[in-house]
Specification:
256 residues, alpha/beta, 2 domains, seven-stranded mixed sheet, globular
């Protein structure tokens, strides 16, 4: 799995269309609909910390973890600029090792898709389960198989922003629902352009597989929604939100 060393410096500029404020509001509303007090929250695979910061500014006690040091450097600076104290840990999803337990885990913007084997997804789910308090919720979203087959597919996307020109090339593997992604960045330096590249894979998983992996990890599948809604997914949904829970096992835990 890529550490997104090159991608990190361009990530925010290339994701300006992501409405982090609306996504934060949605997750807060989803937790409210579950009658769940967020408590201590982990933003898993937090990237450059945009969602982490939005959650923090809404009063949540949140910290972030990501495998990319470069992404976290940007996240830390972003939090400092906003005069917010947020802890960021450089840890992968599969090897998550927290100082203690949390009440809520949020993993947004298709981070699970960057785990390209069921073994890795299960490892991540098991680490979440280990550090999630009984009665706690795990909320995450994923790109769907439809998006991989019809939207990403073998298509090429071009982004021309203020500071960088990016060519995004996909190669779809039909048997695995995996997409090979090549990013080429061109940044102008004086009279010439400097080129840098990033390569990684994303894989789509069916809900049935996700349910099975959650169960194996000791988590219960609660619900699946179309992206940022409380409606069921449609055949052409490009992203879904999964709600999972670590069930209480004792009467005392059930009363919490």
């Amino acid at each position: 799995m890529s550490s997104y060393t090159t991608f990190a410096q361009y990530y925010d500029e290339l994701t300006q269309n992501v409405k982090y404020s609306e996504r934060a509001e949605y997750f807060c509303g989803l937790l409210k609909s579950l009658s769940h007090s967020p408590g201590l929250v982990l933003d898993l695979a937090c990237g450059t910390g945009s969602l982490t910061l939005q959650l923090k500014q809404r009063g949540l006690d949140v910290y972030g973890a990501d495998a990319s040091f470069e992404m976290l450097s940007i996240a830390q600076q972003k939090a400092a600029d906003a005069e917010q104290q947020i802890l960021f840990l450089c840890q992968s999803m599969q090897k998550l090792d927290l100082y203690g337990t949390v009440d809520t885990v949020i993993c947004a913007l298709d981070s699970i898709n960057h785990l390209t084997t069921e073994k890795d997804v299960l490892a991540a789910f098991r680490r979440v389960s280990l550090f999630l308090n009984p009665g706690g919720y795990f909320l995450f979203d994923m790109n769907t198989q439809y998006k991989h087959r019809e939207v990403l597919a073998d298509h090429v996307f071009v982004y021309d922003t203020k500071h960088v020109f990016c060519v995004w090339q996909n190669q779809f593997e039909e048997k695995t629902d995996r997409v090979s992604i090549d990013l080429d960045f061109f940044e102008k330096e004086g009279a010439v352009y400097h080129r840098s590249s990033e390569h990684f894979y994303e894989k789509a998983y069916s809900n049935d597989i996700i349910k099975e992996l959650l169960h194996t990890a000791g988590l219960s599948f609660v619900a699946c929604y179309d992206d940022c809604s409380f409606l069921p997914p449609q055949p052409n949904s490009e992203r879904v939100v999964i709600v999972a829970r670590k069930e209480p096992t004792t009467e005392t835990e059930k009363e919490r």
